[in-house]
Specification:
- The structure is a homodimer of 131-residue chains.
- Chain A is an alpha+beta fold and 131 residues long.
- Chain A has 4 helices and 8 strands.
- In chain A, a hairpin with a 2-residue loop joins strand 7 and strand 8.
- At the A-B interface, helix 2, strand 7 and strand 8 of A face helix 2, strand 7 and strand 8 of B.
Chain lengths: 131, 131
């Protein structure tokens, strides 16, 4: 399961509510410019695949396309909307996951707002019984 | 608001449910060993501050103590438990935030499971209208 907050002002809010499906595509730092371009456009007005320069790839279990440039994609169904109207919070169930085996050490992005991203990539391992 | 999943097997689940308060203390990579030690102990049996070697600091608005070694702490109240029993999901409201002004570039930890952590710290900035 994945929890996801979407602003009711975003086109994605309506799309999630009506289709009850979505793809979560995980970008790496190499795609930062495209991530920002996606964030500054709205799917209500433009085809972001074309305007941003990304490649749609058919999903297996949902109608929404995946983004071929992303090293990992999660096909999801909306399973709980009890907190949607109050917080914009959707509970998603991942029904199919994809990952690119050639990407061994993805450097992922975490938006801190206003175009500032933290980059994660360095990995450390400690002895632990934690799952 | 912060959303937080806690296993019903964890002592924190009961504590959150009864006190309806908690502190979220954000560690940096320098505290990785202590993070693992906390994850491998249970507050039901030991005082983790003593066993792990961390320093409690009184909070302002909640009864739970903060962790002095963490560069940021959030004092929280539980505001919604509708998804608690099904998913272990709590909605928290941050009522007081603390940050150490001397820590300019915190390197934060993201647990991938089994003692493996991604470290974020590098920051990039792109021109964007995104908030």
């Amino acid at each position: 399961l994945v929890g996801c907050v979407v602003s009711p002002n975003d086109f994605s809010f309506k799309a999630l509510s009506t289709t009850r499906q979505c793809a979560l595509n995980i970008p790496t730092v190499e795609l930062a410019a495209q991530v920002v371009a996606c964030g500054n456009a709205t799917g209500a007005q433009v085809d972001k695949f074309a305007s941003v320069g990304l490649t749609p790839r058919p999903a297996r279990l949902i109608a929404a396309p995946l983004i071929a440039e992303c090293y990992a994609s999660l096909e999801c169904r909306v399973v709980d909307t009890r907190l949607r109207n109050r917080y914009g919070f959707f509970v998603l169930e991942v029904v199919q996951a994809w990952t690119s085996p050639s990407v061994k050490a993805p450097r992922t992005l975490h938006h801190r707002g206003y175009g500032v991203f933290m980059v994660a990539g360095e990995t450390i391992k400690l002895a632990s019984r934690m799952r």
